[in-house]
Amino acid sequence: MTDIHPQQPLETQPRYAQHGHYPRATTVDDFRRHLAAVHARIEAACKRVGRNPGGVRLLPVSKTVDEARIRLSYAAGCHMLGENKVQEAHRKWDAMRDLADLRWSVIGHLQTNKAKLVAQFASEFQALDSSHVAEALDRRLQAEGRSLDVFVQVNTSNEAAKSGLPPEAVGDFLRTLSAYSALHVRGLMTLALFSAEGDRVRRCFTTLRTLRDRLRNDAPSGIALDELSMGMSGDFEIAIEEGATVVRVGQAIYGARATPDSDYWPADGQAVPNG
């Protein structure tokens, strides 16, 4: 995929104000319509910067969604899902093992004592930001005879409440990951600032892409930095314009959550949602 670096600021603005208005999907047809609308937004964002939409993977985020509606979304084509909380994800995986090709991506912060659960079921982990977690995951994966695709999380907004490594620490951290053979590093992930100001949001995504471009040529053997996971329901178009290859979208597919965004992420990102 060709990397696109916009030559001038685009007019895209975050769509956070729409979050409370996303309709709830309750049928397979609802999910198909919502997925089609999200894919149309992806295609429009790609067209603006000359990218191929095939270079952007949509990761539906099913956090707080009950099993019945997840099964409907699966029937509509959602065969890999993102979850923030490990225990919630593990419970859903266990209840839906009959869906043999349904895969799970853990996209939220992980404590080392939950590494055993992730090693049992996850296909992907997008929030790796410490050697303690890397070691715990690798050890548990080795015991399970499994491997795991991982993304290194970067705190591009410099907010103390957010997880993720500061950009200047990522290079050294990547060099430590070669020791963990069960972890397959695929790229970097970030959560942008929650702000109605598009320029401030865009800077977070630009920071991640610039960091990836700088580190990619000197990455240790076996460490791939091809992927950029960035962008959620309200800001994924900006993320795509800045080079996202994975966008994590929940509310635009499943509908507005019962709790408002401010419960997850008040005033410029003091708490962290995903999707």
Notes on the structure:
The protein is α/β, with parallel strands linked by helices and 275 residues long. It contains 10 helices and 8 strands. The strands form 2 sheets. A 6-stranded parallel β-sheet has the order 2-3-4-5-6-7. A two-stranded parallel ribbon has the order 1-8. The chain is globular.
- The arrangement of helices and strands along the chain is HEHEHEHEHEHEHEHEHH
**Structural class from helices and strands?**
alpha/beta
> Could you say what the CATH architecture is?
Alpha-Beta Barrel
Strands, total number: 8
Distance between the termini: 24 Å
- CATH class category: Alpha Beta
Strand content: 5-15%
Number of domains: 1
CATH topology name: TIM Barrel
* CATH homologous superfamily identity: Alanine racemase
Helical residue percent?
25-40%
The gross shape turns out to be globular
Major sheet summary line: 6 strands, parallel
SSE layout and pairing:
Blueprint lengths: L27 H22 L7 E4 L6 H9 L4 E4 L2 H10 L7 E4 L8 H7 L2 E5 L2 H14 L3 E6 L16 H7 L6 E7 L8 H19 L10 E3 L6 H6 L4 E4 L1 H4 L6 H4 L11
Parallel strand pairs: 1-8, 2-3, 3-4, 4-5, 5-6, 6-7
Output the keywords.
275 residues, TIM Barrel, 8 strands, six-stranded parallel beta sheet, alpha/beta
Task: Give a quick rundown of the structure.
The chain is of the alpha/beta class. It has a single domain (16-264), classed as TIM Barrel (Alpha-Beta Barrel).
